């Protein structure tokens, strides 16, 4: 797959109602119909612009002019309706408490792309949020697929934008991102 193919897949998202619409304008109208009002709407737009980045509560407070408890309630509501997902901070040292701020990702990259007003062509431009939308897309797909599997860890996988699966150690593979939604023939 090319970078442009990835861009088209990212901004289309994964909601069935959106993926069945081939026309970008019709799909955009669908996303626009998912409305949020007032403060919540501003928070959604800000989270879309910062998707897959570390989210410090203080930065949201200053950007939105809202109190921390209000932001906390709004974030909880957005998580409960599965619009965003919180990826907790972590540490490589198991004995150390994870102190990093969490990342927030949009459960559907198409909604995030619509919120920041980028289509498949615009997301490829320099300075566009291709990287953060790709990270959101990959994390969302992985978390979705984790719920499908009851098995224990059996291999290590690194995702990349290449076209072939490559071994790089015992039970370690570099796998194309496109393998998240395509099945080998």
UniProtKB/TrEMBL annotation:
Domain DUF4143: 32-151
Any single Pfam family the record assigns to this protein: DUF4143
Protein name in UniProt: DUF4143 domain-containing protein
